[in-house]
Amino acid sequence: MPATATPAAIGANELPIIDFARLDDGEAGEAAIARELDETFSRIGFCYFRNIGVPDALVRGLFDASRRFHALPDAAKRALAMNDAHRGYMAPNTSLIVTSSVAQVKRPNYSESLMIMHEVDPADPRFGQPLHGLNQWPDLPGFREAVQAYEAAMRAFCMRLLRPLARALRLDPDWFLPHFDFPTTFLRLLHYPPQPPESPDDAFGSAPHTDYGFITILCQDNAGGLEVRRKDGTWLKAPPVPGTWVVNVADMLSRWTNGRWQSTPHRVKNLSGGDRFSCPYFFDMSMDSTVECVPTCTGPGNPPRHAPVRYGDYLMERLDKNYQYRHRTT
């Protein structure tokens, strides 16, 4: 893929790259990025971001932490099994995406991960409410510091991203801010073991699905395996591009825009012959935020397609259906 690809210059088999270096250029830079976001998210809902202000050293530190965690003995990882606050270790074959709107998924995902979420202090009045709890940290030197440094940088960028996203929808630049007074965030350290070439067609590291929330920003290694489904139903590879993150619209942002921006299906099948590591960052609105069609995405002949929904209710329904650990009886 050309490293200079833009929404106006991409081919049918390429995802665009949006350069956020212009975000420092004031109103003109923010407006230019807003136009590219709208064009890209309306057309396919997936792209690459570059120059988002997250130093390479933080990325290297994050992947080093992930590899060290996944190299631990199985017993050490399972000691951090997912807790009721959705934080901890997910073993292979324990996530089955039954809520997928794009495929009838019959096999659990062939991957393992450590889920890190927004940290909630026990003194916080929200502590103990759904998804408001403490993370589980492995006993690895420097692990927590590396993960928290990356998460803080990603959160800072995502908060800056809210302004051009609002402008892309012809909203006041600060329109999204009240919905993110306490963002719901997930940083998932994923490991995909190699799948045999003779694997069944319906065996995936991550089965076809859309993401639940607002926006996903993925950092991946060089193994490849991520694919995006186009409107015509064909699958487009999203190969690693140095210095970029893969970005996609998720269900709630698509819902806010009345479908103007697509929550695009995607999947992972690791046929590289080696291990694959990726670190998606899911940046979502506050649990109490109500998502309903924004005023610029509806009008005569284009009524809202969905009733208003509280994000926390929508999210918990999907977690309860898709993750085995939430079905424990003891």
TrEMBL record:
Cofactor: Fe(2+)
Top EC group: oxidoreductase
Keyword Metal-binding among record annotations: yes
InterPro entries: DIOX_N, IPNS-like_FE2OG_OXY, IPNS-like_sf, Iron_ascorbate_oxido_reductase, Oxoglu/Fe-dep_dioxygenase_dom
Alphabetized GO MF terms: 2-oxoglutarate oxygenase/decarboxylase (ethylene-forming) activity; metal ion binding
Reactions performed catalytically: L-arginine + 2-oxoglutarate + O2 = guanidine + L-glutamate 5-semialdehyde + succinate + CO2; 2-oxoglutarate + O2 + 2 H(+) = ethene + 3 CO2 + H2O
UniProt pathway annotation: Alkene biosynthesis; ethylene biosynthesis via 2-oxoglutarate
Keyword field: Ethylene biosynthesis, Iron, Metal-binding, Oxidoreductase
Any GO BP: ethylene biosynthetic process
UniProt domain Fe2OG dioxygenase: residue ranges: 183-285
UniProt keyword annotation of DNA repair present: no
Entry EC no(s): 1.13.12.19, 1.14.20.7
Family to which this protein belongs: Belongs to the iron/ascorbate-dependent oxidoreductase family.
Identification of the protein by name: 2-oxoglutarate-dependent ethylene/succinate-forming enzyme
